[in-house]
Amino acid sequence: MKKNFYIKTYGCQMNVYDTEKMTDVLEAEGYVASTEVDGVDLVILNTCHIREKAAEKVYSDIGRIRKVVNTEDKTQKRGLIAVAGCVGQAEGREIMRRAPAVNLVFGPQTYHRLPALLGEVADQRARGLTPRVLDTDFPAETKFDHLPRAKAGRSASAFLSVQEGCDKFCTYCVVPYTRGAEFSRPVAAIMSEAEELVAGGVREMTLLGQNVNAYHGLTENGEVLSLAGLIRLLAKIPNLGRIRYTTSHPRDMTQELIDVHGEVSQCMPYLHLPIQAGSDKILTAMNRQHGAESYIETIDALRKARPDIAISGDFIVGFPGETDEDFEATLALVERIKYAQAYSFKFSPRPGTPAVDMENQVDEDVKAERLARLQDLLNKHQREFNDQTVGMTMPVLFEREGKQKGQLIGRTPYMQSVHVTLSAVDETSEQEYNSLMGDVRDVEIVTAGPRSLEGRLV
Asked: Which domains can be identified in the chain, with CATH numbers?
């Protein structure tokens, strides 16, 4: 009898990719994916440590899931609970101590070892023990060498991990401690996986990395290829119509990469380039290794190379030592850039990071007031960006079904979500509906909302 599993994914796009790879690993072992927690043999919480109160949310979910998969009746099948990802890496021993319902904790560098780890769990259970397995090592070998081949067919869009880890050591961030040092996958391995994905129907590929534009992979000839060079190679793959990449660091935004946006048609006119704050004093305290002015110059260069490019960003308000003047500098920068989308959060101390022990911590009420002001401005700009598309015709890649009958959801080149509903429900429209999935079609934007657009086929 086959076992089934359920994975809950938190946080970043790298975690989405990791979940897909864990799914591939488990399915290769005969497991079947489930969309429901009830009755599964294995629940994996693929955690993220970036967001506020990340660990507490995980503990809350553990308590809820424990009641669903583990009954008090000892004769009933008891499902396994595993914690993966960055919270598992950072707080593995604490999770094992604080949450006895958890059977397995493993970090983001070890999920290729899932079959072996589950074997340890099964061995402990066979010996009458309550399984308790912890693996948060950083193995010397790369996990990518041990993962199943690329599996296409899930969607017309796919994530492709090209770089992992971080050497920047921003003072608020746990990534260098949970993901390790920067590592770039070899060019040949990336190209092979990309070609398999495209052969399986993928039309849009998002290259992933904690600092993706720091990519410096080796070719088979031993030469070092930059992200710009990699994008140019990928653009030669027939039927790969769209290329994106995230997340980038301003320090690694080279002129070579900027030029790609103007010269490679497959490179989409959308870039997520976090700055976090507009004050040079705060950026220095964050160890961001760039200033506000150099960031603005980079954005100006990108807009010169690709005038229609849309910019997305990240912001942290209330970092230790942030004054009203510092915060006003952030608002001024946002007004200067006018982001198409952005993510913003109150500063939340992460155990083990330098910012935890910094002086002049900002009061929570002040953080909340500043965040509200910042989000009002960001939302205003996002709505203005969406509003200006009304009446335009744009190529939309249709990715999934909508909630309404005959509705499909796709994305514009600028990462806007677009809802299109076919007006008829006869046999002809059903055929058209099915043919649209995974295809790029011209759509006239009819209305715009704060988070999505409505359109009609042209």
From this structure: 4-135 (3.40.50.12160), 149-268 (3.30.750.210), 281-387 (3.30.750.200), 393-457 (2.40.50)
